[in-house]
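user: Kindly work through both lines:
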Amino acid sequence: MESFWQDLRFASRALSKSPWFAAVAILTLSLGIAVNTSIFSIVNSFLLRPMPVPHPEQIAVLSLQQTGDMALQKFSYPDFLDIRDQSTSFSDILAYRITLAGLAVDNRGDHCIATRVSGNYFSILGLQPALGRLILPTEGQSPGSDPVIVLGYSYW
């Protein structure tokens, strides 16, 4: 332990003789630590933590990929209905599509991110509303017949 304190005193004397080097070293270390902490926080929140739904390990995402095309394609709604009705491998299948939208209330317009979902979206994920109700599984069977919107807490 005595050698540690001697090394610490020697390091502080050496750094006090060259303050610019000490400042650059401290700045480099603090910047490196800040960048690593930020990257780990992002990776941790998106990849390492499980989704806040019951049984997140049982959730799978289906998409199409055509031969010769590396991009993943979306299902059409009729395809979704066919897959849902004919599936025996999954307990249930939901559909969602994220789009940019505009919302106007009291002569004020705003851009928002809208997620169009099937009627069973919230019940499959086991989500409960803070206020009001969510989309019922029976709603949305025919286009335009019973429009429902669910606002997120921050947008409300």
